[in-house]
Amino acid sequence: MVRYRSEWPSVEELVMCTVKKVFPQGAFVTLDEYGGKEGMVHISEVASGWIKNIRDHVRENQKVVCKVLAVDPVRQHIDLSIRRVKDGERRWKAQRVKLNQRAEKLLELAASKLGKTLDQAYEEVGFKLQEKFGDLYSAMEAAVRDSNSFSGIIDESWAKVITELAKDSIQAPSYKVAGNVILSSTAPNGVEIIKSAMITARDAVRDEDVNVEIYYVGAPRYRIEVTAPSYKAAENAMQRAVELMIEAVTKAGGKGEFQRAG
After folding, report:
1. Which backbone phi and psi does 189 adopt, to 5 degrees?
2. What average pLDDT does range 102-108 have in this prediction?
3. In a 10 Å sphere around its CB, with 0-12 CB exposed, 13-18 middle and 19+ buried, how is residue 74 labelled?
4. Which of 135, 146, 224, 232 has the largest CB neighbor count within 10 A?
5. What is the pLDDT of residue 262?
6. Claim to verify: residue 179 and residue 256 sit in the same structural domain
7. In this predicted structure, what is the pLDDT of residue 241?
């Protein structure tokens, strides 16, 4: 499992876990990416609604994506939630785990080319890249987009080898998210209000890395699709665009709501 310098996860972080023990009031899990540290998922955080039998939702040795609710290093305690992880976040995290395992293999190969071990690679460059880019794979994606991404961050010899390997093995990233926005207005110029709100929101969040498209589906439903270099960037852009649209329409006396695409 890909390693991290930080001994403890941060609150709101998504972590991959392995269920170790299930009991009537919850489950104990180990955090795969943090040296097997133990955390607890209370039964109220396992799933939404009333749970008759917790084992209908989690079982020993199951891999689960959790959201970190609280961390107490003094008590060696981590509170986690399964139910607060959205489907899109769960898929994204599972994918990132696989991609970071792939990135670690490339880091190990780079180390071999330089006569180093994987442990040395992490100490000399791996942890630095995680700190700067969030994770190893994101760092390598950055190198694919821009050969100078590692300048001033890691030693030039490492930067050259890792960048070459990344460009041979990794494609430039592209993530797409979508949803439906329900917008309505009874004003005489309601159509123009909605149209203006959509154009303003689209132009406010779209840039050279983020593309936003809004399509008419059937009144009062409109579809928004956002493509970006990372899932987080795409999610943030979509959320901001939706907020701007709904705010503009409601200020003009209309109504608006968002529905995530299934």
Report:
1. -105, 35
2. 95
3. exposed
4. 224
5. 55
6. yes
7. 94
Q: Which two tokens stand for residue 203?
A: 């132009």
Degrees (nearest 5) of the Cα angle 103, 105, 108? 115
Model pLDDT, residue 173: 66
Interior angle at CA 184, CA 181 and CA 190, nearest 5: 125
DSSP letter (8 states) at residue 187:
S
pLDDT higher than threshold 60 for residue 197: yes
For residues 133 and 170, give the distance between their C-alpha atoms in angstroms, rounded to a whole number.
Answer: 16
Q: Please identify, among 134, 169, 204, the residue that sits at the C-terminal boundary of a domain.
A: 169
SS3 233: helix
Residue where a domain stops, chosen among 62, 84, 106: 84
pLDDT given at position 5: 62
In this prediction, residue 217 carries a pLDDT of: 87
The DSSP secondary-structure symbol of 203 reads H
pLDDT recorded at residue 198: 93
Q: What are the CA-CA distances from residue 199 to residues 72, 212, 214 (Å)?
A: 46, 10, 9
Give the tens place of pLDDT for each residue, 235-262.
899 999 999 999 999 999 999 999 877 5
Q: Among 97, 102, 91, which residue's Cα sits nearest to residue 34? A: 97
In a domain, 107, yes or no: yes
Domain of 120, in residue numbers:
88-169
Checking phi first, is residue 17 left (phi over 0); if not, alpha (psi -120 to 50) or beta?
A: beta
Q: How many domains does the chain have?
A: 3
Structure tokens, 254: 């209309």
d(CA 52, CA 64): 20
pLDDT of 156: 95
- At residue 72, the 3 state secondary structure works out as strand
